[in-house]
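Need residues for this backbone.
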């Protein structure tokens, strides 16, 4: 008998929504040999047991639950001794263990009904209690991991919440158990990871060949709000950068703002674009940068994000160099977004964590990039380092105020010291350190006489061929000659020592009219000092704010017109997204589709008296209509309503869902800002 026939019999259907459930979908098996099984018999047995326990069972009456408790699902798998025999297994218990019969599940079920989970005596609950107390779990061989569908640990509980597993805590617990780890980071049940991992990999590969002067997604830039009729020049009469019009007249400073780059051009960017004439609006759709005005990262009003424009490169300048373009202006004459940007100059967030390696209690997580203040720095970038001994608003003797040192980044890592493996502790480690590692070079032939961490040993400069092979930027020999420091060995620095990217010499000349690479040292240090004074998100005694993502660092709630961050509407339905992820991995079944909000297109829904004709809100179009995250990007996916009546198998449902979820990458990936 199918579940859809139940209401045609004389059954008493008992709803289970009246009590809370501890069921966890993350403990469900992920594929063969497990397969979903019809749960009608279990629901009838549990209903009968329940009423009998309460003394309300009537002779001759039939009972059933309308569904199993939320988060529980019945599966089956072949018996190990007899493959033709299929054994039931009810998954959903937080421990990851399963129940083999309705009678076996009854004690836990009654604890759910009576809200007495704290005193439940079922075997899985007892195993969790013994694990918390530190005693060995009964019936489990030493070293055997629990049965879960995620990354295994010795602890019977799976750290996480309704959003999914806490992969970082699981990794630390695994490190403690195995003493060491060396593995690629995969987080298949993490929505952000699933939607962005592939694009992040492609994005950072592209950055290797992009010129250093091209603004990157998520970077803060200075940009001109209105059209630029003329060119930017230094007005000797005012000492300010102003617009010199095509009419050979000065028109004052342009309307500078600070903004976030949210889209980059599809067309190739050329160095001449730094000073080239204004493009047409049609051309800007492919060659322009979408820049959104930066709102107050500490305030509630985020309306500035909706003030955006597609602008050519000539109307954009690196925010690190704000003093070069705004230094002659009074504070009351600059747009509020400028101070909004300065507020986050002393902030950082790591991007695209892809590998973990360590020996307990230390762990090193490799990343492809890091946001430091206004800029995104990536592996293979050449970055400029602060002068030795330089402090805010203070130049020292012996030329230490001049920028002469650069590093070619080889690795970016998050170093965790004294890791905390307690699943109930929110902290992963007692100390966190971001490090950029690579070889350091200088243009100062006397650099070694001052000693220090990068003391020069080899006084022989790089040849032109060696400089070309060392730096990916074109023409770096024009800054030279270059001398290797620390005898050519790799060195590590913290973000505190970094100024920003090193642009190509000709690009720096076109942007700043200077052939040196210390043009923005004062601006960066002034901005960081301002940030330290006003950003109350920094812990007491600290001078940097660490954000889990660029969205958090900048305090954004909307990107490209799409909600983002922890307050985004799509995060209000974590169970739905976990179900979508499972379906995308090929684990489609009726229960998952129901949780995901994807009605089955064959047969009738459970409890329906009359079969209804599917509407335009059925199938994946219905999912799209319930999520701004999806519907905002639905233009990237063809959803033909004329095909919605056709039967959808698990395989093609998973394929279509994968395409649908990938279509929202361009929006959701901005949460991490590739």
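Answer:
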């Amino acid at each position: 008998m199918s579940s859809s026939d139940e209401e045609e019999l004389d059954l008493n259907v008992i709803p289970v929504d009246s009590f809370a459930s501890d069921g966890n979908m993350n403990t469900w098996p992920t594929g063969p040999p497990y397969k979903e099984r019809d749960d009608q018999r279990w629901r009838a047995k549990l209903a009968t047991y329940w009423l009998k326990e309460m003394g309300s069972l009537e002779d001759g009456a039939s009972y059933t639950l309308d569904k199993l408790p939320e988060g529980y699902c019945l599966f089956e798998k072949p018996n190990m001794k007899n493959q033709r025999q299929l054994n039931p297994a009810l998954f959903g218990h937080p421990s990851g263990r399963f129940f083999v019969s309705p009678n076996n599940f009854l004690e836990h079920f009654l604890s759910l009904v009576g809200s007495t989970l704290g005193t439940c005596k079922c075997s899985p609950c007892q195993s969790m209690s013994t694990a918390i107390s530190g005693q060995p779990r009964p019936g489990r061989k030493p070293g055997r991991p629990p049965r879960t569908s995620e990354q295994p640990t010795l602890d019977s509980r799976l750290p996480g919440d309704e959003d999914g597993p806490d992969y970082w805590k699981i990794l630390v617990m695994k490190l403690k158990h195995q003493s060491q780890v060396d593995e690629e980071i995969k987080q298949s049940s993490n929505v952000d990871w699933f939607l962005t991992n592939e694009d992040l990999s492609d994005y950072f590969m592209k950055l290797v060949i992009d010129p250093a002067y091209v603004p990157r997604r998520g970077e803060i830039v200075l940009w001109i709000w209105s059209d630029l009729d003329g060119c930017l020049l230094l007005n000797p009469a005012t000492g300010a950068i102003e617009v010199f019009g095509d009419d050979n007249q000065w028109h004052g400073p342009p309307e500078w703002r600070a903004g976030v780059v949210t889209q980059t051009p599809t067309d190739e960017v050329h160095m001449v674009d730094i000073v080239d004439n204004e493009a047409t609006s049609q051309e800007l759709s492919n060659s322009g940068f979408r820049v959104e005005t930066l709102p107050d990262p500490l305030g509630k009003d985020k309306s500035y994000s909706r003030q955006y424009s597609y602008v050519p490169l000539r109307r954009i300048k690196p925010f690190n160099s704000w003093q070069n373009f705004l230094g002659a202006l009074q504070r009351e004459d600059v747009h509020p977004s400028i101070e909004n940007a300065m507020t986050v100059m002393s902030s950082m967030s790591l991007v695209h964590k892809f590998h973990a390696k360590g020996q307990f209690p230390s762990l090193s997580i490799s990343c492809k990039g890091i946001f430091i203040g206004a800029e995104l720095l990536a592996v293979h970038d050449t970055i400029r380092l602060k002068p030795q001994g330089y402090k805010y608003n203070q130049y020292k003797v012996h030329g230490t105020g001049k920028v002469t040192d650069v590093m070619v980044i080889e690795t970016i890592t998050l170093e965790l010291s004294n890791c905390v493996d307690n699943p109930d502790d929110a902290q992963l480690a007692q100390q966190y350190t971001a490090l950029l590692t690579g070889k350091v070079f200088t243009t100062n032939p006397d650099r070694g006489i001052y000693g220090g961490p990068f003391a020069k040993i080899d006084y022989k400069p790089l040849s032109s061929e060696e400089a070309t092979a060392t730096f990916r930027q074109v023409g770096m020999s024009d800054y030279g000659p270059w001398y290797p420091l620390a005898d050519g060995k790799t060195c590590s620095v913290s973000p505190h020592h970094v100024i920003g990217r090193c642009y190509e010499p000709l690009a720096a000349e076109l942007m700043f009219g200077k052939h040196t690479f210390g043009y923005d040292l004062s601006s960066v240090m002034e901005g960081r000092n301002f940030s330290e004074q006003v950003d109350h998100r920094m812990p007491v005694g600290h001078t940097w704010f660490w954000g889990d993502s660029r969205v958090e660092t900048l305090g954004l709630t909307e990107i490209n017109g799409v909600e983002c961050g922890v307050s985004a509407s799509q995060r209000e339905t974590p169970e739905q997204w976990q179900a979508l992820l499972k379906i995308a991995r090929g684990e489609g079944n009726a229960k998952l589709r129901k949780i995901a909000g994807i009605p089955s297109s064959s047969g009738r829904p459970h409890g329906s008296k009359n079969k209804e004709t599917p509407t335009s809100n059925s199938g994946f179009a219905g999912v799209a209509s319930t999520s701004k995250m999806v519907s905002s990007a639905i233009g990237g996916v063809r959803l033909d309503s004329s095909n919605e009546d056709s039967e959808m198998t698990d395989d093609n449902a998973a394929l279509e869902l994968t395409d649908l979820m990938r279509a929202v990458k361009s929006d959701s990936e901005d949460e991490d800002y590739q």
